[in-house]
Amino acid sequence: xxxxxxxxxxxxxxxxxxxxxxxxxxxxxxxxxxxxxxxxxxxxxxxxxxxxxxxxxxxxxxxxxxxxxxxxxxxxxxxxxxxxxxxxxxxxxxxxxxxxxxxxxxxxxxxxxxxxxxxxxxxxxxxxxxxxxxxxxxxxxxxxxxxxxxxxxxxxxxxxxxxxxxxxxxxxxxxxxxxxxxxxxxxxxxxxxxxxxxxxxxxxxxxxxxxxxxxxxxxxxxxxxxxxxxxxxxxxxxxxxxxxxxxxxxxxxxxxxxxxxxxxxxxxxxxxxxxxxxxxxxxxxxxxxxxxxxxxxxxxxxxxxxxxxxxxxxxxxxxxxxxxxxxxxxxxxxxxxx
Length: 338
Ligand SMILES: Nc1ncnc2c1ncn2[C@@H]1O[C@H](COP(=O)(O)OP(=O)(O)OP(=O)(O)O)[C@@H](O)[C@H]1O
Description:
- This protein is an alpha/beta fold.
- The protein contains 10 helices and 14 strands.
- Helix 3 runs parallel beside helix 5.
- Adenosine-5'-triphosphate binds next to helix 1.
């Protein structure tokens, strides 16, 4: 049988995920931090280095989106923090608890919704989720389990055996299991990959409620619009290195290129010479003039453009602004780092 990565027993092979360094003894902790990840590296037995000294502090109560292309090391990092994969070096603290010296306390604070479906069980939904809670040494709380199952639209299925459920329902069970012991730090590893719209909606409702109750959420996703909508901060990892950590709003302001689209009164055959200094392009048969600028650039002067347009006799009847999506920013960042 496959070990179940969502449960602490999977890590029983030893509270040993970390590699101790002398520096960590007595190292100060940040009281407001949910996770302090310090110098985590991982070289697999194959000799492949999946993580290179990753350091990252996740604040309590934030929703942190970890973005990266396939194979960047996201799952490896999450698996290390959850004690499922052994790091080659580095340390992690969870709410100040050292991940190996204080393993039980640290692990109990963590919930993991893994990428892979691992629930091929004869057990019922109710039994599985209740068992998960018990594994963390918590007293039974049927009312809480009922609430979790209802939130995830699993209540009707509570007596069904897991193996009889559809893939989407099994994924809901994984989420319910991850929540059964009331974690304070929840990892969602590609939670919505291949799930239907209804489950995505349910899941984000649950995530919003958890966040509102103070749970810290670390999310990896391929649907960057989800990160754009939900995240407080964004980290970008590529080839095992964190290349950027930034408030989402600031990131979009800083790196997102903006466009101002002017709908002209009279179409133009070409962009007037006097406006050659601006990044302008004509579209829609000459009836639409698009000005592309980045908010940090020197030539971000819309006021200057307006007066130069007037001087050139170009009139417009309407205008719109557009901003790069997080997806575009992400793609550019990863491309630049290659
Ligand atoms: N057990 C293993 N042995 C050897 N290499 C591995 C092992 N597990 C993962 N890797 C490699 O480590 C790298 C990082 O993998 P990881 O699954 O962490 O990436 P990821 O960012 O989660 O990717 P994805 O978005 O595709 O899930 C990949 O190149 C992968 O092939």
